[in-house]
Specification:
The longest helix has 14 residues, at 331-344. The model is unreliable at 1-31 (pLDDT under 50). This protein is α+β, with helices and mostly antiparallel strands. Helices cover 13% and strands 31% of the residues.
Length: 359
């Protein structure tokens, strides 16, 4: 249980709603991520980790990627990070987790909802500290370790949402709020050179290949599932009858930086600020970056869309339930680029690379 007397308890970030709501006797199961079934392999869709031969990193995917995509996937490996959000209440600590990625050696782009206050023993508790870890294997226990290798760095929020959202560092995200946040590390990431940065490739001369059913590549971290309740949303889905916690954890390489391959399902609309995809994810992957098949930045993964609720307030998935993301070409993201990314990026040449979709 989340309110153990143990001083350090570690859970995946989005599990807070599940466990806290169970304790507070309000809808006890809210899932914010979902895995998908691969009909070609007749198994749960798996993610793909980075490997090293001792000198260089490489990736092994089901299909050989283009050189542009391969190069982009290998480069963003050093930019993607795991975020740990620490909460304190009296003598007890809780750590929740999400994903994000470096824009420069100091700036991190992620989701705003990671930093919502939590309900703890009927009190609103705001986060205490934010940490990021760059290791390919970033176990939850590492965030409480004595980090002698300097791969754990404290961060602070620069902005959450848009100016008109009027969000502080500690507000709860609302449904109409832009779910984006920019963080600054207290010191430079040691594994990223001063002249290295994330290039979204928005002003490339070639046209984007992001059309309905085109391939997408999501890079982030999946948290380890521990509760059988995590299986309940899948109970009405065909092919998930024999699903187990171990199967989901194994196929998603939990606590490891990995690549999930899916497709672009639905574009955003006037009624919906999010687009949808079917890259397979577990809890803790919100904030992961998404690339298209040419290696261009597409958007930021947020969570699940179109889940349903039964009379007993338990959520479940159906064939229309997909994962959602904020597209970089959306109005909200373009405004966030102008209001937050460009003013804080501190490099005129790099700022220009973010102007293609923000004009």
């Amino acid at each position: 249980m989340i309110f153990s007397s143990c001083p350090d308890i570690i859970v995946s970030f989005e599990e807070q709603e599940i466990r806290l709501n169970r304790i507070n006797k309000i809808p006890k199961f809210i899932s914010t991520e979902r895995a998908f079934f691969n009909s070609q392999t007749n198994s749960i869709q798996e993610t793909y980790t980075y490997a090293s031969d001792g000198l260089n990193y490489y990736i092994e995917l089901p299909k050989t990627p283009s050189e542009n995509l391969r190069s982009s996937l290998l480069f963003v490996r050093k930019m993607v990070l795991r975020i740990g959000i620490l909460y304190k209440h009296e003598s007890t600590k809780q750590m929740y987790f999400g994903s994000g990625f470096l824009l420069t050696n100091r700036l991190v782009l992620t989701c705003a909802h990671h930093f919502d206050p939590i309900q703890w023993e009927n009190k609103n508790v705001s986060y205490n500290k934010i940490y990021v870890c760059f290791l390919d294997t970033a176990s939850e226990t590492y965030f409480f370790s004595n980090d002698s290798n300097n791969f754990l760095i404290e961060a602070k929020i620069i902005c959450r949402g848009l100016i008109e959202d009027n969000m502080s560092d500690y507000n709860e995200l609302k449904s109409n709020t832009t779910d984006l946040a920019l963080l600054e590390l207290e010191k430079s990431a040691p594994h990223v050179q001063l002249n290295e940065y994330f290039d979204p490739k928005l002003n490339s001369s070639s046209q984007s290949n992001v059309t309905i059913n085109s391939e997408l590549f999501l890079i982030g971290y999946n948290g380890k599932l521990t509760q059988n309740d995590d299986l309940k949303p899948y109970k009405y889905l065909k092919d998930f009858e024999n699903l187990t916690i171990d199967t989901l954890n194994y196929s998603h390489h939990v606590n490891n930086k990995s690549i999930s391959i899916g497709r672009f399902i639905q574009d955003l609309s006037l009624d919906n600020q999010y687009a949808m995809h079917d890259c397979s994810t577990l809890l803790g992957s919100s904030g992961a970056l998404i690339l298209d098949s040419t290696g261009k930045f597409v958007g930021i993964h947020i969570g699940v869309a179109n889940s349903r609720k039964e009379k007993n307030n338990e959520f479940f998935f159906n064939k229309e339930t997909f994962n959602k993301f904020v597209p970089v070409n959306s109005k909200a993201f373009r405004e966030f680029i102008l209001q937050s990314i460009i003013p804080n990026i501190g490099n005129d040449e790099l700022a220009k690379k973010w102007l293609f979709n923000s004009k």
